[in-house]
Write a structure and sequence with these properties.
By secondary structure, this protein is mainly alpha-helical. About 70% of the residues lie in helices and about 0% in strands. It is built from four helices and no strands. It has helices at about 5-10, 30-45, 50-105, 110-115. The protein is rod-shaped, with a radius of gyration of 40 Å.
Length: about 120
C-alpha cells in the first residue's frame, strides 16, 4: 500500500459493534418508519421476540374493547327494559280503549259504529 504509515495501522483498535447478532448492513426504508424499525430491530437483537413487544399494546386494546362491549351490553339491557315498559304501557292503553268503547256502547248505543 502506498502512502500508508504501518505504525498508525498498528495503533488502530478494532471496532466492536453494538449488535449481538454480528455484522450489519445498510438498508433503505421510508424515513417515517426508520426509528420504529430500528427500535424493533434492537428488541429482536436483545432476544425479545416481536410477539412479546406487541403484547402490552394488544392486552391494552383487549381491555379497551372489553370495556366497550360491557358498556354496550349495559345500554342494551336498558333499551330492553325500556322496550318492555313501552310494551306494557301499550297493552294497558289498549285495555283502556276497549273499556272506553264498552262504556260508550252502554251510554250511547247509537255510537255503535265508533266502537267497532
Amino acid at each position: 500500500m502506498k502512502n500508508v504509515n504501518h505504525r498508525s495501522l498498528a495503533n488502530l483498535t478494532p471496532f466492536e459493534g453494538k449488535w449481538k447478532h454480528g455484522t450489519t448492513r445498510t438498508i433503505r426504508v421510508p424515513i417515517v418508519l426508520a426509528d420504529k424499525l430500528l427500535a424493533l430491530a434492537r428488541k429482536l437483537d436483545n432476544g425479545e421476540s416481536f410477539e412479546k413487544s406487541e403484547q402490552p399494546r394488544l392486552y391494552s386494546r383487549i381491555g379497551e374493547l372489553t370495556a366497550e362491549v360491557d358498556a354496550l351490553q349495559r345500554k342494551l339491557l336498558k333499551a330492553q327494559h325500556s322496550l318492555d315498559t313501552a310494551e306494557d304501557d301499550i297493552a294497558n292503553l289498549k285495555l283502556e280503549v276497549t273499556d272506553a268503547k264498552s262504556e260508550l256502547k252502554k251510554v250511547s248505543p247509537e255510537n255503535k259504529k265508533l266502537t267497532e
